[in-house]
Structure formats: C-alpha cells, structure tokens
Amino acid sequence: MERIKRNDIIVVSGTTTSKDGFISRHTILATVVEVGKYDLFAKEINSVITSSAVFRVSKKRCVKVRNAEIQPTEKIINPKIGDLVLCYYESYQKTVLTKGILTEIIDKPGRPSQAKIIQGSKSEVVPLDSLIVLEH
C-alpha cells in the first residue's frame, strides 16, 4: 500500500450490509487532514453538506489518488469515419451498448450531433457523444 500523508487526495470506501450480507459499496473523495499509524482523519471533497465534518477512517479503506499520473487537460479523442467504436448511453430506463464501424457523422443545425454505426448488416443512429474509439 502506498504511503498516505497529510493533504493527499484519497478515495474512501464503505459498504451497506443487512442481515442478508453485503448490499452495496459507497465511495467518496476526501482530503487527508492528519495521519496515524492505522487510521487517519479526512474531510470529504465537494460534499453536498456545506461544511463537511472531519471523520476518522481506517487506512485500509483508503486508496491514494496519484495526481501526477492524471492529465486534467487531456482532451477526448473524437472518432473518425472508419473507426471501430463503442457506443454507450442510457435511454428510457434501458442501457444501449453497441460496437460497430462509424460510417457517418450527422450534424444538423440546432440538434445534437449523431453518428451512424454499422455492425454486420445492421446500422444504427446514435448520439455522437456516446462513442469512444476502440481502434483507428
């Protein structure tokens, strides 16, 4: 486990359990306030509570966020016609997940951009911003 120190940003994990066992996992982003041998004090970042309180938590429930590896100015790579893409979006309480070749980009004024992807003999029009590139 990587050494956690004061002012580090961490992900803190918790769970919901019932008499039947594990139900779900919860995570928050926090800043380390002070560090002890086994536990630490942290404060939630961007809490919906105006002044989030400092809380005590086991180090074993925390993972350090390695900011040096994060590239906050990196832009999304927009797919190009001919790329193999993965489409993911939620519509009317269903999740759409499709892979295919991008064949058209549809840019109608006043409307969100769309894309036509083909998978075998089947084609589908999807929101352009629901695509990520799998292969150029």
Molecular structure report:
A hairpin with a 3-residue loop joins strand 2 (21-35) and strand 3. This protein has strands at residues 9-18, 21-35, 39-44, 54-58, 62-64, 84-91, 94-106, 114-119, 122-127, 131-135. With 136 residues, it is mainly β. It contains no helices and 10 strands. The mean pLDDT is 91. The strands form 2 sheets. It has a 5-stranded antiparallel β-sheet, with no helix packed on it. It has a 5-stranded antiparallel β-sheet with strand order 9-8-7-6-10, with no helix packed on it.
Can you describe this structure in just a few lines?
This protein has strands spanning 9-18, 21-35, 39-44, 54-58, 62-64, 84-91, 94-106, 114-119, 122-127, 131-135. The protein has 136 residues and is mainly β.
Strand content: over 45%
Q: pLDDT below 50 for ≥5 consecutive residues: which ranges?
A: none
Q: Which H/E pattern describes the elements?
A: EEEEEEEEEE
- Overall structural class, as computed from helix and strand content, comes to mainly beta
Largest sheet, order of strands side by side? 4-3-2-1-5
CA gyration radius, whole angstroms: 22 Å
Mean pLDDT: 91
Counted by DSSP, the helix tally is 0
Ends apart, CA distance between termini: 37 Å
Measured as a percent range, the helix fraction is under 10%
Net shape:
elongated
Biggest beta sheet summary: 5 strands, antiparallel
**Total beta strands:** 10
Topology of helices and strands:
Blueprint: E1 9-18, E2 21-35, E3 39-44, E4 54-58, E5 62-64, E6 84-91, E7 94-106, E8 114-119, E9 122-127, E10 131-135
Antiparallel strand pairs: 1-2, 1-5, 2-3, 3-4, 6-7, 6-10, 7-8, 8-9
